[in-house]
Design a protein that fits this description.
By secondary structure, the chain is α+β, with helices and mostly antiparallel strands. About 15% of the residues lie in helices and about 30% in strands. The strands form 4 sheets. Strands 7, 8, 9, 10, 11, 14, 15, 16 and 17 form a 9-stranded mixed sheet that branches. The longest helix has 12 residues, at about 145-160. It is globular.
Length: about 300
């Protein structure tokens, strides 16, 4: 346990990041969220505004294992590539980047084995990674080959100028054809691995189109207006239609088998030329109703 007396006002997570530079800010945020930090005896959120004179107590941070950046040769579909960027079709079971708890190769390891340059803006263990997909989610991911492209692509996502659309197969019969879920999302206090709809969370908006009714459930298309962690999975669970195969959010009987979430469509302005780059990836063979998950159905769902 370490006690620190605050002299200058600051956000709690930023303050601790400067006090413990050998640990990543994301790790410090998790440490705070797990209740291992108190301010004047009370557990606070990472964004808590510290004042001069506050007393911060922090449980000791454990050393983080080094991330494995060993190149790993593996065939991966490249949907688009030039000197500045790539769009790859990430297969199921491949994490986006290394983590201390990950014991198998990630997309980063695969990209390193291909050779060539990758941006450094995402951090030492996330070269090239502009945004991520969950390990069991399949589909399109942007990869930046240099920092100029990375900054432009990340800004496009932040400004909602990059359009990302997903196919999902959910439990039950979705009775509406087109609708919008506008519900804020925050960390689930009862399970730190989960997010949840929370009135105190960040605004999250998902647009939904019913595509087809299947024997297993309903095939829908989802268009993201915001990009919160697990947004589609959390919104659909809250609606009573969890994504099939989602072991984290679906009830046990509906969480079995391959996760039915696929990032099928991506449109973004090229970071150097400004021309619109549009990519589509077919859903994998183990995606229910993949024959209905067409490019035309999802490309027409909102502007490109």
């Amino acid at each position: 346990m370490t006690q620190i007396n605050v002299e200058t006002p600051d956000r709690l997570d930023k303050f601790l990041a400067t006090q413990f530079p050998d640990h990543s800010r994301s790790k410090i945020v998790r440490h705070i969220e797990d209740g291992n930090v108190t301010v004047n005896g009370a557990v606070e959120k990472p964004a808590y505004k510290l004042r001069s004179g506050d007393v911060v107590l922090i449980q000791d941070l454990t050393e983080t294992e080094a991330h494995d950046l060993t190149p790993f040769a593996m065939d991966i579909e490249v949907v688009y590539e030039d000197d500045d960027m790539m769009i790859v079709n990430k297969p199921r079971g491949l994490a986006s980047h290394p983590a201390a708890s990950l014991r198998e190769p990630s997309l980063v390891n695969v990209l390193l084995a291909r050779g060539g340059s990758l941006s450094s803006m995402g951090g030492e263990f996330r070269p090239g990674i502009v945004h991520r997909l969950d390990k069991e989610t399949t589909g399109l991911m942007l990869v930046a080959k240099n920092d100029y492209a990375h900054a432009a692509l990340a800004a496009a996502i932040e400004k909602r100028e990059a359009h990302r659309r997903y196919y999902a197969v959910v439990a039950g019969d979705v009775d509406r054809e087109v609708f919008t879920i506008d519900a804020p999302i925050g960390r689930n206090p009862a399970n730190r691995q989960q997010m949840a709809v929370d009135v105190h969370g960040k605004r999250a908006v998902t647009h939904v189109l019913r595509v087809a009714r299947l024997l297993q459930g309903t095939l829908i298309a989802c268009r993201l207006e915001t990009g919160r962690t697990h947004q589609i999975r959390v919104h659909l669970r809250a609606l009573g239609h969890p994504v099939l195969g989602d072991a984290l959010y679906a009830p046990k009987e509906q969480g079995q088998g391959p996760m039915q979430l696929h990032a099928a469509y991506l449109a973004v302005d090229h970071p150097r030329t400004g021309e619109r780059v549009v990519a589509f990836a077919d859903a994998p063979a183990d995606f229910y109703g993949h024959e209905f998950a067409t490019r035309d159905a999802i490309a027409g769902f909102g502007s490109a």
